[in-house]
Amino acid sequence: MNRRDFVKSTGAGMALMLSPWPRWTAAAEESGAFEELFLKPPADARPHTWWHWMNGNISSEGITRDLEAMARVGVGGVQVFDVGTGIPKGPVVSLSPEWFALMKHAASEADRLGLSLTLHNCPGWSSTGGPWVTPELAMQQVVWSETFVGGNKALDLDLRSR
Question: Is residue 145 part of a domain?
């Protein structure tokens, strides 16, 4: 079985298992419900995406157009990321009254379109901002490496050089 056929068949199966309707039965298979469910999955089985609000460059009209386009192509929901690093500043200040009004509009539009809407926990790319984060602790990165070794042998490995 090639990769595409595998993804197609397992994706349809997972959509059926995770969806509230119809559970797998011989009758569902015979009626074509599997194919229908794969072609038109319920909202909770559709893909979700990040939705970047670019440094205050947002409007109610743009929000509506974005969400309608995402719903039209089958997106099931969005996670709003309010980002600004390296992007020209727009007219809306993050967490201002206008920003909250636009967020309320986005939630209302998402509801109207049957999309879920979630929020990233703070403005920024990596949740690293705030006065409590000192410069020496900012933007840390975890790194790793792998070393495969055979069993039943002594191992002398300096992890600091990895």
Answer: no
- Do 64 and 106 fall into the same domain? yes
Residues 89 and 29 in one domain: no
- Per residue in 97-130, pLDDT (tens digit) is 999 999 999 999 999 999 999 988 665 555 556 6
pTM of the model: 0.57
Closest CA to 109 of 57, 54, 51: 51
